[in-house]
Amino acid sequence: MPMRSFAKRAALCGALAIFAGAATAQTATPNWRDFETLSFGRVRALAQISSARTLRLITAIDNARLIGPEVPVDSVLAWKTALWNDLDNPKQLQYALANAILVQPFARDSGNIGYLLTVADTAGESRQAILDKGAIEEFLDLLSNASTAGKILTDAELHKNAPIVTTQVTLAKPYKPAYPRTARLVGMSGSALVQFVVDTAGKVKPGTITTVDATFKDFGDAAASYVTEMAFLPATIDGHPVERLVQYPFDFKLNAVLPITPFQVPMRRGR
Asked: CA-CA to 191 of 20 to 30 Å: which in 1, 20, 182, 205?
């Protein structure tokens, strides 16, 4: 065989080998890591994140177990944001996330809004459950936090064969807020619930502070003012600090001790 022809064939074989290797890499099975499991009523949902930065749900409803199709985490976050912003005033009849999840808001007899959740698996089977606002908020929060993990974890971390470890916001040290002067003078006790974002450095973002509830306005004002002086240990995902929206309860009694762990948001009403 002439040398030139041999060289051409060798080059062609080499190119085919490289192409085959690339195709194998592209079709390799991704590694899946468990994020968190959420249970509400008949539904139990596990969010998983893959090394390809996609999310899927493994959902148990009644006796059915469905493994959902994978969806890119950026698509999940965009869908979650659109639905979250419309929860109190839905602008669409349905909110579909690829072929994996469908949420359909509807008016309930009480005048509140309910949400019909449909989850599907890769074979086209689906199951449904009706959620209240607290449950749909928790469900969306699960998807959002899991998708955040898919964005911030390194490739090496996404290839680990272990569940993703998360920690919640905690107080960095004990605090005792200043008692409102008027309330102290009249011997009044009370409480306040303040909502705010704790950033990745453990600091409260001032523009996010709102008073959710207070038994007396002075208690609400004192609590909202005091949180700017507080320091927290931020929430983490596999050691990476992340922002979290939390609600913190203040109990105004002369000998009260503040709790160490705020309520994570969203939280179920009436718990």
From this structure: 205
